[in-house]
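for the record, two folds in this file. i put them one after another cuz i was lazy. first one right below, seq on top, structure tokens after. the second one comes after a little note so u can tell where it starts
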Amino acid sequence: MSLPRLLQTLHRMHRQVSDLRDRIRRIPNRAKTSETNLKNLEQELADEKENWRNVRRQAEEKQSQLRTREDRVANRKGKLNEANNNRDYKAIQDEIAADTQANAVLQDEILELLERLDEVQKKSQERTEAVETFKKEHARLISKLDEDKIALEKELERVQGELKETEKQLDGDVVSIYHSAIRAHGENGLAPLEEGSCGNCNHLVTPNVQSDVEMGRPVACKQCGSLMYPKRD
């Protein structure tokens, strides 16, 4: 294999290695994002349940108040027959009327709370179902990510093995130049020469350098240090 073709092949392999490593690194982030979303849903459900408990407590307190006030009205009605004169009788009637009106308002408030309680309970049920659905989706995602990681690690091992075998085809001065560039820049240690410019940093090379690269001589870019090769389709 000619040096230009060999360098192009090595560059492609280094890009594969970099891409596989990047995909492997992203897997924990995807799992963490899904776990965070699940925790957020669970917190929303907990908040909804706490809201339901608060509304129920308010309704129960007002229902207790209503029972107390109704007992008061009943007691005052019983005192009507005990009134000694019209003035006392009228005073008790006014108290009964005031309590009855207040109780009507309290009943309306209780009705509103019970309706709100039904709405909150419905939302809580919907969130419960949403959490259960997401838990299943999360479990499936984690399982798939584990499978993907194993597959990607195997593919990475294969490509790295092929890369090492292909590197053995390098000889002469290009070996030290190649390894120096790769150690310094990783996959960007190799770059295609495109229209007289380094494909890594866009540095414009001289015609003599371009000629050397086209002839397959090992030449590193003076700007970024990448080992250049002529671009081939």
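(here's the note) second protein begins now
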Amino acid sequence: MMNTPNPITYFEDLSSLGINCPHEDAFAPDGNKIYYRYIHGGELKSECFLPTKIDPTKPLSKDFDECIGKSVSVFDHIDGLINGVFKLPHHKGKKRAIGLVKLCATDGLIKKTFGDNHYSWWRAKDFICESVTLQEIVIS
């Protein structure tokens, strides 16, 4: 059951999917936990918090659906981000920017998906990307 204080207007159009989205087991974040997101280009802007584009040539997880396709990937531990994103060869030896995001109930709903540290976040239109702390790390 969704735990939402007020109706949320989402950044992505979820109503056109024809399925229950966000999923019924999605929940409102409490504003205390930090989530991590790779920030392409190292500059905070709204485009940093869009759903990850899906490569149509790669097979999708059996748990993936159109609703998850409208969510933003975040991790609840920096190691999850490093292992899930930064282990790719083109990241090695480079500085990368990550966003530290304290999501609260007005920022949308979130659900644990695809592994130990991965979450799918359905971003609210009212999310303020300037509230994110930017940090640089070097990937070895």
